[in-house]
Amino acid sequence: MLDLAIIGGGPAGLSAGLYATRGGLGNVVMFERGIIGGQITGSSEIENYPGQKNPGESGLDFMSTWSKQCMHFGLKHEAANVSKVSRNEDGSFKISLENGKEMNAKAVIVATGSTPKRAGFKGEDEFFGRGVSTCATCDGFFYKNKEVAVLGGGDTALEEAIYLSNICSKVYLVHRRDGFRAAPTTVEKARKNEKIEFVTSATIKEAYGDKMGLGGLTLNTKEGERDLKVPGVFTFVGLNVNNQILLQDDGKFLCEMSENGEMIVDLKMRTNVPGLFGAGDIRIDAPKQVVCAAGDGAMAALSALSYIENLH
Ligand code: FAD
Ligand code: NAP
Protein backbone atom coordinates (compact mmCIF):
# COMPACT_ATOMS: atom_id res chain seq x y z
CA MET A 1 0.00 0.00 0.00
CA LEU A 2 1.41 3.41 -1.00
CA ASP A 3 1.21 6.18 1.57
CA LEU A 4 0.40 8.67 -1.14
CA ALA A 5 -0.22 8.51 -4.88
CA ILE A 6 0.28 11.73 -6.83
CA ILE A 7 -1.25 11.73 -10.29
CA GLY A 8 0.54 14.16 -12.59
CA GLY A 9 4.11 15.44 -12.64
CA GLY A 10 3.61 19.14 -13.39
CA PRO A 11 4.36 22.00 -10.96
CA ALA A 12 1.50 20.92 -8.65
CA GLY A 13 2.42 17.21 -8.57
CA LEU A 14 6.14 17.85 -8.12
CA SER A 15 5.60 20.35 -5.31
CA ALA A 16 3.25 17.90 -3.63
CA GLY A 17 5.96 15.24 -3.93
CA LEU A 18 8.56 17.51 -2.41
CA TYR A 19 6.42 18.41 0.60
CA ALA A 20 5.13 14.86 1.14
CA THR A 21 8.59 13.27 1.14
CA ARG A 22 10.21 16.00 3.20
CA GLY A 23 7.22 15.74 5.54
CA GLY A 24 8.19 12.17 6.34
CA LEU A 25 6.05 9.96 4.08
CA GLY A 26 8.11 6.96 3.01
CA ASN A 27 6.21 5.54 0.09
CA VAL A 28 5.15 8.28 -2.29
CA VAL A 29 4.77 7.62 -6.01
CA MET A 30 4.16 10.26 -8.67
CA PHE A 31 2.52 8.90 -11.82
CA GLU A 32 3.31 10.84 -15.00
CA ARG A 33 2.29 9.80 -18.51
CA GLY A 34 4.47 12.28 -20.39
CA ILE A 35 7.35 14.66 -19.84
CA ILE A 36 7.97 15.46 -16.16
CA GLY A 37 7.32 19.17 -15.65
CA GLY A 38 3.81 19.46 -17.11
CA GLN A 39 2.43 21.83 -19.70
CA ILE A 40 4.89 24.64 -19.02
CA THR A 41 7.60 22.47 -20.63
CA GLY A 42 5.89 23.28 -23.95
CA SER A 43 6.23 27.03 -23.38
CA SER A 44 8.89 29.05 -25.14
CA GLU A 45 9.47 31.22 -22.09
CA ILE A 46 8.58 31.85 -18.48
CA GLU A 47 9.48 35.01 -16.63
CA ASN A 48 6.94 35.35 -13.82
CA TYR A 49 8.00 32.73 -11.29
CA PRO A 50 9.22 34.56 -8.17
CA GLY A 51 12.96 34.43 -7.65
CA GLN A 52 13.69 32.99 -11.09
CA LYS A 53 17.40 33.07 -11.91
CA ASN A 54 16.93 33.34 -15.67
CA PRO A 55 13.64 35.12 -16.48
CA GLY A 56 12.67 34.39 -20.08
CA GLU A 57 14.17 30.88 -20.12
CA SER A 58 12.19 28.06 -21.76
CA GLY A 59 9.66 26.15 -19.68
CA LEU A 60 11.67 22.96 -20.20
CA ASP A 61 14.86 24.52 -18.82
CA PHE A 62 12.94 26.07 -15.95
CA MET A 63 11.39 22.77 -14.84
CA SER A 64 14.54 20.68 -15.31
CA THR A 65 15.69 21.06 -11.69
CA TRP A 66 12.33 20.37 -10.02
CA SER A 67 12.21 16.59 -10.38
CA LYS A 68 15.87 16.20 -9.35
CA GLN A 69 15.11 18.01 -6.11
CA CYS A 70 12.04 15.81 -5.46
CA MET A 71 13.85 12.53 -6.21
CA HIS A 72 16.62 13.64 -3.83
CA PHE A 73 14.09 13.53 -0.99
CA GLY A 74 12.72 10.12 -2.00
CA LEU A 75 9.86 10.77 -4.41
CA LYS A 76 9.39 7.79 -6.74
CA HIS A 77 8.37 8.31 -10.34
CA GLU A 78 6.28 5.81 -12.29
CA ALA A 79 6.05 6.54 -16.03
CA ALA A 80 2.45 5.49 -16.58
CA ASN A 81 -0.93 6.72 -17.72
CA VAL A 82 -3.44 6.44 -14.89
CA SER A 83 -6.82 5.36 -16.25
CA LYS A 84 -8.90 5.52 -13.07
CA VAL A 85 -8.85 6.39 -9.38
CA SER A 86 -11.54 4.66 -7.31
CA ARG A 87 -12.24 4.11 -3.64
CA ASN A 88 -11.86 0.78 -1.84
CA GLU A 89 -14.32 -0.32 0.85
CA ASP A 90 -11.79 0.39 3.62
CA GLY A 91 -11.49 4.03 2.49
CA SER A 92 -8.15 3.60 0.69
CA PHE A 93 -7.86 4.22 -3.06
CA LYS A 94 -7.19 2.03 -6.07
CA ILE A 95 -5.02 3.49 -8.84
CA SER A 96 -5.64 1.67 -12.13
CA LEU A 97 -3.02 2.10 -14.83
CA GLU A 98 -3.57 1.87 -18.57
CA ASN A 99 -1.08 -1.03 -18.70
CA GLY A 100 -3.40 -3.11 -16.49
CA LYS A 101 -1.42 -2.70 -13.27
CA GLU A 102 -3.26 -1.69 -10.09
CA MET A 103 -1.90 -0.12 -6.92
CA ASN A 104 -3.49 0.93 -3.65
CA ALA A 105 -2.82 4.14 -1.73
CA LYS A 106 -3.92 5.58 1.59
CA ALA A 107 -4.39 9.03 0.03
CA VAL A 108 -4.35 10.54 -3.46
CA ILE A 109 -3.48 13.96 -4.84
CA VAL A 110 -4.86 14.55 -8.33
CA ALA A 111 -2.72 17.08 -10.20
CA THR A 112 -3.49 16.15 -13.80
CA GLY A 113 -3.67 19.73 -15.10
CA SER A 114 -5.16 20.60 -18.44
CA THR A 115 -4.57 20.15 -22.18
CA PRO A 116 -5.11 22.42 -25.22
CA LYS A 117 -8.60 22.63 -26.68
CA ARG A 118 -9.35 22.22 -30.36
CA ALA A 119 -10.82 25.36 -31.99
CA GLY A 120 -13.35 23.48 -34.08
CA PHE A 121 -12.80 24.89 -37.59
CA LYS A 122 -13.12 22.79 -40.73
CA GLY A 123 -9.90 20.95 -41.58
CA GLU A 124 -8.39 21.35 -38.08
CA ASP A 125 -8.35 17.63 -37.34
CA GLU A 126 -7.38 16.67 -40.90
CA PHE A 127 -4.26 18.87 -40.81
CA PHE A 128 -3.40 18.42 -37.12
CA GLY A 129 0.31 17.58 -37.00
CA ARG A 130 0.63 18.52 -40.70
CA GLY A 131 0.41 22.30 -40.38
CA VAL A 132 -1.96 22.71 -37.43
CA SER A 133 -0.12 22.76 -34.09
CA THR A 134 -0.65 23.68 -30.43
CA CYS A 135 3.04 23.98 -29.56
CA ALA A 136 5.25 26.77 -30.92
CA THR A 137 8.42 25.58 -29.18
CA CYS A 138 7.92 22.10 -30.64
CA ASP A 139 7.00 23.02 -34.21
CA GLY A 140 7.96 26.68 -34.75
CA PHE A 141 11.32 25.83 -36.27
CA PHE A 142 9.62 23.98 -39.18
CA TYR A 143 8.40 27.38 -40.37
CA LYS A 144 11.71 29.24 -40.27
CA ASN A 145 11.47 32.29 -42.56
CA LYS A 146 7.91 31.37 -43.55
CA GLU A 147 4.58 33.03 -42.76
CA VAL A 148 2.38 31.47 -40.09
CA ALA A 149 -0.89 32.23 -38.31
CA VAL A 150 -1.69 32.12 -34.60
CA LEU A 151 -5.28 31.73 -33.39
CA GLY A 152 -6.47 33.10 -30.03
CA GLY A 153 -6.41 36.20 -27.85
CA GLY A 154 -5.18 34.89 -24.49
CA ASP A 155 -1.73 35.02 -22.87
CA THR A 156 -0.59 31.87 -24.65
CA ALA A 157 -1.53 33.11 -28.15
CA LEU A 158 0.11 36.50 -27.68
CA GLU A 159 3.27 35.16 -26.06
CA GLU A 160 3.71 32.41 -28.62
CA ALA A 161 3.05 34.86 -31.49
CA ILE A 162 5.97 36.95 -30.18
CA TYR A 163 8.12 33.82 -29.92
CA LEU A 164 7.25 32.77 -33.49
CA SER A 165 8.07 36.25 -34.80
CA ASN A 166 11.71 35.51 -33.95
CA ILE A 167 11.70 32.48 -36.27
CA CYS A 168 9.11 33.18 -38.95
CA SER A 169 9.00 35.93 -41.58
CA LYS A 170 5.51 37.03 -40.53
CA VAL A 171 2.86 36.08 -37.97
CA TYR A 172 -0.85 36.74 -38.51
CA LEU A 173 -2.54 36.93 -35.11
CA VAL A 174 -6.14 35.89 -35.75
CA HIS A 175 -8.60 36.61 -32.95
CA ARG A 176 -12.38 36.50 -32.90
CA ARG A 177 -12.79 39.80 -30.99
CA ASP A 178 -11.08 43.21 -30.90
CA GLY A 179 -10.38 42.93 -27.16
CA PHE A 180 -7.86 40.55 -25.65
CA ARG A 181 -7.75 38.39 -22.54
CA ALA A 182 -3.95 38.48 -22.51
CA ALA A 183 -2.10 40.80 -20.11
CA PRO A 184 -2.12 44.37 -21.52
CA THR A 185 1.70 44.53 -21.41
CA THR A 186 1.92 41.43 -23.59
CA VAL A 187 -0.63 42.80 -26.06
CA GLU A 188 1.37 46.04 -26.21
CA LYS A 189 4.60 44.14 -26.87
CA ALA A 190 2.95 42.19 -29.70
CA ARG A 191 1.45 45.37 -31.21
CA LYS A 192 4.90 46.96 -31.33
CA ASN A 193 6.32 43.92 -33.14
CA GLU A 194 6.53 44.74 -36.85
CA LYS A 195 6.39 41.09 -37.87
CA ILE A 196 2.99 40.53 -36.23
CA GLU A 197 -0.16 41.56 -38.12
CA PHE A 198 -3.30 41.69 -35.96
CA VAL A 199 -6.33 40.23 -37.75
CA THR A 200 -9.14 40.81 -35.24
CA SER A 201 -12.87 40.14 -35.34
CA ALA A 202 -11.91 37.21 -37.53
CA THR A 203 -12.40 33.46 -37.36
CA ILE A 204 -10.98 30.58 -39.34
CA LYS A 205 -13.62 29.27 -41.69
CA GLU A 206 -11.51 26.48 -43.10
CA ALA A 207 -8.00 25.06 -43.25
CA TYR A 208 -7.18 23.69 -46.69
CA GLY A 209 -4.28 21.82 -48.25
CA ASP A 210 -3.31 18.53 -49.79
CA LYS A 211 -1.42 15.33 -48.99
CA MET A 212 1.71 17.38 -48.29
CA GLY A 213 -0.04 19.30 -45.52
CA LEU A 214 -1.64 22.66 -44.86
CA GLY A 215 -1.81 25.06 -47.79
CA GLY A 216 -3.61 27.95 -46.13
CA LEU A 217 -6.60 29.29 -44.25
CA THR A 218 -9.86 30.90 -45.30
CA LEU A 219 -10.88 33.51 -42.74
CA ASN A 220 -14.20 35.14 -42.08
CA THR A 221 -13.52 38.80 -41.34
CA LYS A 222 -15.64 41.95 -41.00
CA GLU A 223 -14.67 42.83 -44.58
CA GLY A 224 -15.60 39.39 -45.92
CA GLU A 225 -13.53 36.29 -46.64
CA ARG A 226 -9.74 36.53 -46.57
CA ASP A 227 -7.22 33.98 -47.78
CA LEU A 228 -3.99 33.42 -45.81
CA LYS A 229 -1.49 31.25 -47.67
CA VAL A 230 0.28 29.91 -44.59
CA PRO A 231 1.84 26.44 -44.22
CA GLY A 232 1.40 26.58 -40.44
CA VAL A 233 -1.25 27.65 -37.94
CA PHE A 234 -0.80 27.55 -34.17
CA THR A 235 -4.04 27.35 -32.19
CA PHE A 236 -4.12 28.59 -28.58
CA VAL A 237 -7.81 28.68 -27.71
CA GLY A 238 -7.80 27.61 -24.08
CA LEU A 239 -7.59 24.41 -22.12
CA ASN A 240 -9.69 21.42 -21.02
CA VAL A 241 -9.11 19.98 -17.54
CA ASN A 242 -7.88 16.39 -17.41
CA ASN A 243 -10.57 14.89 -15.18
CA GLN A 244 -11.24 11.57 -16.92
CA ILE A 245 -9.46 9.49 -14.26
CA LEU A 246 -12.11 10.50 -11.71
CA LEU A 247 -14.96 9.12 -13.80
CA GLN A 248 -16.44 5.97 -12.18
CA ASP A 249 -18.22 2.98 -13.73
CA ASP A 250 -21.62 4.49 -12.90
CA GLY A 251 -20.78 7.59 -15.00
CA LYS A 252 -20.37 9.83 -11.95
CA PHE A 253 -17.20 11.52 -10.76
CA LEU A 254 -15.45 10.24 -7.63
CA CYS A 255 -15.78 13.64 -5.95
CA GLU A 256 -17.86 16.77 -6.42
CA MET A 257 -16.96 18.68 -9.57
CA SER A 258 -17.82 22.14 -10.92
CA GLU A 259 -19.96 22.50 -14.04
CA ASN A 260 -16.70 23.00 -15.98
CA GLY A 261 -15.43 19.63 -14.77
CA GLU A 262 -12.94 21.01 -12.24
CA MET A 263 -12.44 19.37 -8.82
CA ILE A 264 -14.18 21.29 -6.05
CA VAL A 265 -11.70 21.74 -3.21
CA ASP A 266 -11.49 23.88 -0.10
CA LEU A 267 -8.55 26.10 0.86
CA LYS A 268 -6.71 23.00 2.09
CA MET A 269 -7.18 21.34 -1.33
CA ARG A 270 -9.54 18.77 0.23
CA THR A 271 -12.40 17.36 -1.82
CA ASN A 272 -15.62 16.04 -0.31
CA VAL A 273 -14.01 12.55 -0.28
CA PRO A 274 -11.69 12.03 2.73
CA GLY A 275 -8.13 11.33 1.56
CA LEU A 276 -8.67 12.71 -1.97
CA PHE A 277 -7.09 16.06 -2.80
CA GLY A 278 -6.94 18.21 -5.94
CA ALA A 279 -4.16 20.67 -6.85
CA GLY A 280 -3.20 22.98 -9.71
CA ASP A 281 -5.09 23.64 -12.95
CA ILE A 282 -7.51 20.76 -12.26
CA ARG A 283 -9.12 22.49 -9.30
CA ILE A 284 -11.94 25.02 -9.27
CA ASP A 285 -10.96 28.70 -9.66
CA ALA A 286 -7.35 27.84 -10.51
CA PRO A 287 -5.48 30.98 -11.64
CA LYS A 288 -3.57 28.72 -14.07
CA GLN A 289 -0.13 29.87 -13.06
CA VAL A 290 2.93 27.80 -12.20
CA VAL A 291 3.42 29.56 -8.88
CA CYS A 292 -0.18 28.88 -7.85
CA ALA A 293 -0.04 25.24 -8.95
CA ALA A 294 3.14 24.81 -6.88
CA GLY A 295 1.44 26.40 -3.85
CA ASP A 296 -1.56 24.11 -4.28
CA GLY A 297 0.69 21.06 -4.46
CA ALA A 298 2.42 22.01 -1.22
CA MET A 299 -0.92 22.64 0.51
CA ALA A 300 -2.39 19.36 -0.74
CA ALA A 301 0.64 17.45 0.56
CA LEU A 302 0.40 19.07 3.99
CA SER A 303 -3.29 18.12 4.11
CA ALA A 304 -2.50 14.57 3.01
CA LEU A 305 0.17 14.28 5.74
CA SER A 306 -2.35 15.32 8.35
CA TYR A 307 -5.01 12.97 6.93
CA ILE A 308 -2.65 9.98 6.96
CA GLU A 309 -1.46 10.78 10.47
CA ASN A 310 -5.05 10.73 11.72
CA LEU A 311 -5.66 7.29 10.18
CA HIS A 312 -3.50 5.67 12.87
P1 FAD B 1 0.14 20.55 -15.67
O1 FAD B 1 1.32 21.41 -15.83
O2 FAD B 1 -0.86 20.49 -16.76
O3 FAD B 1 0.68 19.10 -15.32
C1 FAD B 1 -0.19 18.00 -15.25
C2 FAD B 1 0.60 16.74 -15.56
O4 FAD B 1 -0.24 15.60 -15.34
C3 FAD B 1 1.06 16.66 -17.01
O5 FAD B 1 2.45 16.48 -17.04
C4 FAD B 1 0.30 15.46 -17.59
O6 FAD B 1 1.08 14.72 -18.50
C5 FAD B 1 0.02 14.64 -16.33
N1 FAD B 1 -1.17 13.79 -16.47
C6 FAD B 1 -2.40 14.19 -16.85
N2 FAD B 1 -3.25 13.12 -16.84
C7 FAD B 1 -2.51 12.06 -16.44
C8 FAD B 1 -2.81 10.67 -16.25
N3 FAD B 1 -4.03 10.20 -16.48
N4 FAD B 1 -1.83 9.84 -15.85
C9 FAD B 1 -0.57 10.31 -15.62
N5 FAD B 1 -0.22 11.62 -15.80
C10 FAD B 1 -1.18 12.46 -16.20
N6 FAD B 1 2.03 29.85 -16.16
C11 FAD B 1 2.84 30.79 -15.59
O7 FAD B 1 2.81 30.97 -14.38
N7 FAD B 1 3.69 31.52 -16.36
C12 FAD B 1 3.81 31.34 -17.69
O8 FAD B 1 4.59 32.05 -18.35
C13 FAD B 1 3.00 30.36 -18.30
N8 FAD B 1 3.11 30.13 -19.62
C14 FAD B 1 2.39 29.14 -20.19
C15 FAD B 1 2.57 28.87 -21.54
C16 FAD B 1 1.89 27.84 -22.15
C17 FAD B 1 2.13 27.55 -23.61
C18 FAD B 1 0.96 27.08 -21.39
C19 FAD B 1 0.21 25.94 -22.05
C20 FAD B 1 0.76 27.35 -20.05
C21 FAD B 1 1.46 28.38 -19.43
N9 FAD B 1 1.31 28.68 -18.08
C22 FAD B 1 2.10 29.63 -17.49
C23 FAD B 1 0.33 27.95 -17.23
C24 FAD B 1 1.05 26.82 -16.42
O9 FAD B 1 1.84 26.03 -17.29
C25 FAD B 1 0.02 25.93 -15.72
O10 FAD B 1 -0.82 26.74 -14.91
C26 FAD B 1 0.70 24.89 -14.83
O11 FAD B 1 1.59 24.08 -15.59
C27 FAD B 1 -0.31 24.00 -14.14
O12 FAD B 1 0.38 23.03 -13.41
P2 FAD B 1 -0.31 21.64 -13.00
O13 FAD B 1 0.74 20.86 -12.29
O14 FAD B 1 -1.59 21.90 -12.33
O15 FAD B 1 -0.70 20.93 -14.38
P1 NAP C 1 -7.49 31.48 -22.52
O1 NAP C 1 -7.03 32.53 -21.58
O2 NAP C 1 -8.68 30.66 -22.18
O3 NAP C 1 -7.70 32.17 -23.94
C1 NAP C 1 -8.22 31.47 -25.01
C2 NAP C 1 -8.39 32.41 -26.19
O4 NAP C 1 -8.86 31.68 -27.31
C3 NAP C 1 -9.40 33.53 -25.92
O5 NAP C 1 -8.92 34.73 -26.45
C4 NAP C 1 -10.65 33.05 -26.66
O6 NAP C 1 -11.39 34.11 -27.20
C5 NAP C 1 -10.06 32.26 -27.80
N1 NAP C 1 -10.93 31.15 -28.22
C6 NAP C 1 -11.55 30.25 -27.44
N2 NAP C 1 -12.20 29.34 -28.18
C7 NAP C 1 -12.01 29.70 -29.47
C8 NAP C 1 -12.43 29.14 -30.70
N3 NAP C 1 -13.16 28.03 -30.76
N4 NAP C 1 -12.05 29.76 -31.84
C9 NAP C 1 -11.29 30.88 -31.80
N5 NAP C 1 -10.84 31.45 -30.66
C10 NAP C 1 -11.21 30.87 -29.50
O7 NAP C 1 -6.32 30.39 -22.81
P2 NAP C 1 -4.71 30.52 -22.74
O8 NAP C 1 -4.25 31.73 -23.42
O9 NAP C 1 -4.17 29.21 -23.18
O10 NAP C 1 -4.42 30.70 -21.18
C11 NAP C 1 -4.85 29.67 -20.26
C12 NAP C 1 -4.50 30.10 -18.85
O11 NAP C 1 -3.07 30.05 -18.68
C13 NAP C 1 -4.94 31.53 -18.56
O12 NAP C 1 -5.42 31.61 -17.26
C14 NAP C 1 -3.66 32.32 -18.73
O13 NAP C 1 -3.66 33.53 -17.99
C15 NAP C 1 -2.59 31.33 -18.26
N6 NAP C 1 -1.31 31.66 -18.91
C16 NAP C 1 -0.53 32.56 -18.26
C17 NAP C 1 0.64 32.97 -18.85
C18 NAP C 1 1.48 33.98 -18.12
O14 NAP C 1 1.23 34.19 -16.95
N7 NAP C 1 2.48 34.59 -18.72
C19 NAP C 1 1.00 32.50 -20.10
C20 NAP C 1 0.16 31.60 -20.74
C21 NAP C 1 -1.01 31.19 -20.14
P3 NAP C 1 -12.26 35.09 -26.28
O15 NAP C 1 -11.28 35.97 -25.58
O16 NAP C 1 -13.13 35.80 -27.25
O17 NAP C 1 -13.04 34.20 -25.34
If you had to describe this structure to a student in words, what would you say it looks like?
Strands 1, 2, 3, 4, 5, 6 and 17 form a seven-stranded mixed beta sheet that branches. The two termini are 14 Å apart. The chain has seven helices and 17 strands. Helix 5 (155-165) runs parallel beside helix 6 (184-192). It has 312 residues and is of the alpha/beta class. The protein binds flavin-adenine dinucleotide (FAD) and NADP nicotinamide-adenine-dinucleotide phosphate (NAP). NADP nicotinamide-adenine-dinucleotide phosphate (NAP) binds next to helix 5.
Q: Which percent bin holds the helix content? A: 10-25%
Number of helices: 7
Beta percentage is 25-35%
What is Rg?
A: 21 Å
Task: Write down the secondary-structure element order.
Answer: EHEHHEEEEEEHEHEHEEEEEEEH
Ligand list: flavin-adenine dinucleotide, NADP nicotinamide-adenine-dinucleotide phosphate
> Which stretches are poorly predicted, pLDDT < 50 over at least 5 residues?
none
Total beta strand runs: 17
Give me the secondary-structure category.
Answer: alpha/beta
Name the average pLDDT.
95
| N-C termini distance | 14 Å
Counting copies of identical and different chains, the oligomeric state is: single chain
State the shape.
Answer: elongated
